[in-house]
Design goal:
The complex is a heterodimer. By secondary structure, chain A is an alpha/beta fold. Helices cover 36% and strands 16% of the residues of chain A. Classes of the chains: A alpha/beta, B alpha/beta.
Chain lengths: 313, 333
């Protein structure tokens, strides 16, 4: 398959890049000028695109690749890929569901505990020598609290399962109520926010869920409420979030994603009730390797005429 | 500080003179709340001399029948000798390694602890610390706050927690709560305890070395006593290995701290999350610059929610003792 041309448009695990290089004729097009050069010379030979959460083919790119057959994304979120365009052009799309569900759910609980129990702040307190001056203040208990989950898909359900081990009550909002679910359903995000202590954003990013966490929802969550975002930065109206935190209208936040990564609003740096992570939801050795293998296996299946493992389109 | 009384003070003109006196040692975190809630029931005496010295012996000390102490104040035989009328020691901690239980027993002094009050809080913290050290949460937060704007997010990968093998050292109330939480992460729970627990189905390991050899992480939840001092030593850490992690929410001396520092410096162990240390509040300086350690100031138990419950328990134990009723959370020796 060494003659099949593949274009890489998003940042991926080095292992994946190396394997793509070995198996295919790989073109790197992450950087815009790199991409322009590749398109100029090789657009008509590219049969596959490998995307990630940091970059995916939009309508323009898909149009520019007449021989494109498949987009394989090194992520579960595909908000960077124009799925509609892919459908129109008969381009297959695969992502990496399930292999990162546990990982992201683990980190979600870690974020909740880090915010409520001020673990990162405590660590700073010790490292700065402040413990010698006195004990750290009291923090907030997690066990027994009410967790609100926005989007009870694979990741949301995995978070709920873990939170049950902490005797949390679980409630959720979803596009449609899930009749088999034992958790309490709220028909709106504002109602969900009003009735929980910690709100976890775990839904896909779509035009409908853009800025689903807005001023109204943040105010409903309130001065003792905590927002945890492990979805996409654009789920949250970031300037509203920042002002709510600065004004004390929101109790705290644990954020793994931001509207314009890697940019993080500097106003958050001085706050002790926020935890800020560099989009590491799936960032473990084990999971990134599994994701890479899934991308490779999907591509191989496609070019051998076999069924795709994890097709979205 | 204005309301605190020096132990050396003579008779007080305070209207609470007739209330039972309770000596408070070691500045427990719950002290302010205790005073707010129970100053109508007890007269709290708080020495403003150094914690290490209660000399000279004065009249008020010799009539003290109840003491409240924190985990940071050692109730030793010499201290007990200063309190000849002492009938009750109430510690605000679950741990009792700072109390000479033998000496208390010989003198007919009852001891009460925090029992299972903090088990949820400490278990929550233990899981939070485990996730933090394996997924590099605190290191990542530091990274985001200090990285310059132009840089990309090139941050080292962490290790998966779900499905891993977690070895719990000490399957008491706290250990069981940790196990219950990590089971929901799909972890395999293994344990070492003084004795195998017949009611529990987790695999039991007679030695901590064997436990370490088969675990991805050790979570230390046991009491500190003569048998458990340095229970995590060089051999255990060798068995745990380069990708192994340790979480300590018990007592600092459960781990040979000097060896731990050496193992971390040599990269012979994956990382450690520590809420307790051998010589608090001192922390080995080598740890302060490491990214694969998480350091918290012995605060696993302390949430606002538990403080009121703790005060109720402390007061309840004192009242029980004063009315010759059984203590709520008596510590047997």
């Amino acid at each position: 398959m060494g003659s099949i041309s593949v274009l890489l448009v998003g940042k991926v695990l080095p292992y994946l890049e190396q394997e793509l290089d070995k198996r295919y004729n790989l073109f790197r097009g992450i950087d815009p000028s790199q991409r322009a050069a590749v398109l100029r010379d090789h657009a008509s030979s590219i049969r596959a695109v490998v995307a990630s959460s940091s970059g995916g083919p939009d309508a323009a790119l898909i149009e520019a690749l007449p021989k494109l057959e498949i987009v394989s994304s090194f992520s579960v979120g595909v908000d960077r890929i124009d799925l509609q365009k892919c459908k129109e052009k008969g381009v297959r799309v695969t992502n990496t569901p399930d292999v990162l569900t546990d990982e992201v759910a683990d980190l979600t609980i870690g974020l909740i505990l880090a915010v409520l129990r001020r673990i990162c702040e405590c660590d700073r307190y010790v490292r700065s020598g402040n413990w010698k001056k006195g004990d750290y203040k009291l923090t907030t208990k997690f066990s027994g609290k009410t967790l609100g989950i926005l989007g009870l898909g694979r990741i949301g359900a995995a978070v709920a399962k873990r939170a049950e081990g902490f005797d949390c009550s679980i409630c959720y909002y979803s596009r449609n109520e899930k009749p088999d679910s034992k958790y309490k359903y709220y028909p709106s995000v504002v109602e969900l926010a009003s009735n929980c202590d910690v709100l976890v954003v775990a839904c896909p990013l779509t035009p409908e869920t853009h800025h689903i966490i807005n001023r109204e929802v943040i105010n409903a969550l309130g001065p003792k409420g905590v927002l945890i975002n492990i979805g996409r930065g654009k789920h949250v109206d970031e300037p509203e979030l920042v002002s709510a935190l600065l004004e004390g209208r929101l109790g705290g936040a644990g954020l793994d994603v931001f509207e314009k990564e890697p940019h993080v609003p500097e106003e958050l740096f001085g706050l002790e009730n926020v935890v800020l992570l560099p989009h590491v939801g799936s960032a473990t050795v084990e999971t990134r390797t599994a994701m890479a293998d899934l991308v490779l296996d999907n591509l191989e299946a496609h070019f051998l005429g076999k069924p795709l493992l994890t097709p979205l389109v | 500080m204005a309301e605190e009384e020096k132990v050396e003070l003579q008779q007080l003109k305070h209207e609470n003179q007739d209330l039972p006196q309770v000596l408070v040692l070691g500045s427990p975190t719950c002290l302010q709340t205790l005073k707010q809630l129970y100053s109508h029931k007890f007269r709290f005496l708080i020495p403003n001399t150094s914690l290490d010295s209660l000399y000279p012996l004065t009249a008020p000390l010799s009539s003290i029948s109840a003491v409240i102490c924190s985990a940071s104040f050692s109730i030793t035989a010499p201290v007990l000798r200063l309190l000849p009328s002492l009938r009750l020691v109430v510690t605000t901690s679950a741990g009792t390694d700072h109390i000479d239980l033998n000496e208390c027993g010989c003198r007919g002094i009852q001891v009460a602890g925090a029992g299972k009050l903090f088990s949820d809080e400490v278990a929550d913290m233990a899981v939070g610390l485990l996730i933090d050290v394996m997924r590099r949460v605190s290191a990542a937060d530091r990274f985001v706050r200090t990285i310059c704007e132009a840089a990309t997010w090139d941050f080292p990968l962490g290790y998966k927690i779900s499905g891993k093998r977690i070895g719990i050292v000490g399957l008491g109330s706290i250990g069981m709560e940790v196990a219950k939480r990590l089971e929901c992460f799909g972890c395999t729970i293994l344990y070492h305890s003084k004795h195998k627990k017949s009611a529990v189905s987790y695999p039991f390991y007679n030695s901590v070395i064997d436990l370490a050899a088969t675990s991805n992480a050790l979570v230390l939840c046991c009491a500190l006593n003569e048998e458990t001092r340095h229970i995590v030593n060089r051999e255990v850490m060798l068995a745990l290995g380069k990708e192994g992690f340790i979480v300590n929410v018990g007592r600092g001396s459960l781990i040979d701290e000097k060896q731990l520092v050496k193992f971390l410096m040599d990269g012979e162990i994956g990382g450690a999350a520590l809420d307790v240390f051998e010589d608090e509040p001192n922390v080995p300086k080598e740890l302060l610059s490491m990214d694969n350690v998480v350091l918290t100031p012995h605060c696993a138990a302390f949430t606002s929610e538990c403080i009121i419950k703790l005060c109720e328990l402390v007061a309840g134990n004192i009242e029980a003792s004063l009315s010759d009723k059984p203590l709520i959370t008596q510590v047997k020796w």
